[in-house]
Amino acid sequence: MKSSLLLCVLIFLVCGFCFGGDGSEEYFALIMDGNKIGYGIHSRTVEGGLVTTTETVKMTIARGSIAISMTTSETSIETIKGRGVGFETVQEMGGSVVRTKGKIDTNGKMLTTIYGGGSKQERVSDFPKDAIMAEGLRLLEIRKGLKEGTKYSANVFSGSLGNALTAEIAIGPKVSVDLFGRVVELTEVKTSMNMGMGDMVTTSYVDDDFVALKTIIPMMGMNMEMVACDREFAMSKGDVVDFLNKAFLDSPVKIDLGKLDNAKAAVFTLSAVGREELAIPEGDYQKVKQLAADKVEVTVTKLKAEDGVKFPYKGTDEEALKSLESTFYIESDNEKIVAMSRKAVKGAKDAAQAVRQIEQFVAEYITEKDLSVGYATAVEVARSRQGDCTEHAVLTAGLCRAAGIPAKVACGIVYADGFAGRENIFGGHAWVECYIAGKWVGVDATQGENGFDATHIMLATGNGDPADFFSIVTMLGYFKIDKIELVK
User: Fold this and answer.
1) Separation of alpha carbons 485 and 488, rounded Å
2) Domain shared by 213 and 287, yes or no
3) pLDDT for 150-202, tens place per residue?
4) For residues 273 and 480, is the Cβ–Cβ distance under 8 A?
5) Domain containing 373: what range?
6) Less Cβ around it within 10 Å: N or C end of the chain?
């Protein structure tokens, strides 16, 4: 799973709320578990009545034996009064580059052009109501000030997500903060953002010019830090930390894979770690019983797709119809994807058989099954035939949608008896949900036909966009599995 990719994007989004200075250039070191793994740069220029603000985050993380460098950059263009005019983002991850350019007119319409995988896509949409960008946020911070006890909210647009996030901001007291041996008096600012699975609260320490000189970001049971420093240290060579282990949870028992294959369902007892509440989403194959505020019982059933259902889908269910649409990561209307889908489902008598054939087709088609791909679209996977669970998922969803079978990409955790030197673990994973006969059924091409089993605990679903996977980063490390029972 792309936990490292999501970490990079999440840190970048948080930094959009943190930099905030009006200087020409500011540098930050990115620290994880005491190791410097990357840097951030903030720049702001004013010219011709427009303010251009650029935030860049670069980091290198190991996933097993593979080190991957990731760079995310976002530029916002605004008037001096803070009205958004345009934006540009660049994401470079594991050799994959996605560039997005946006223009916002005075009527609030947004034209977004996305370049990636050798393709170009254009979208016209409404700019989120009342959303502000970097300069608008800076001006809001100045108006609100740094008086202890001040609270306010901001709806901040992110070009990387193509949408806005709401942040609840609370000004705290002045405290002494260590910045690599230099102790300074800074104002504590807490920012709460809802990432889809509850709030994530970051703590920033801000100087009188509203520049966050240190920001602490809790995720995956650890703290990441962005600390102000000089250019030389920020750009210096960092450490490479194996991040993959952070995406694992220990299983309380060793699961007999033979018994798992024959199990119709699995019942899990989960409890929160370091949090007072625990919430897990439900679905057709996943039911949740709240045992206490911090404890839940999750039952995952291996649903069988009903036979005899025709495809393409001709129903009226809104979610199913939306899950037939072509998106940036699931390009189901692409000629190559359409041709591959026809080949995969050839001879299928119903939707259930078509999905099984697609599942097996993708399992065999992706020949290089490794962690070296940063994040790829369905078309990129079709060209490279390379990737891990995320690549399997977007290609599977693309072929299903092209065949007229509604499909969503799901993310969560799944059991493995061994992986990367660890045994009896649950790790971050991605798979697909297909809508057949009024139910969403789990499909996992990483294991071939009928690859979905009852240990797939779903945390979120979507269109395969990086933002859909934030639940992995914000949830792992904050709950544990206390008990597992297999149901025959």
Assistant:
1) 10
2) no
3) 999 999 898 877 788 888 999 999 999 999 989 999 999 999 887 655 567 88
4) yes
5) 257-487
6) C
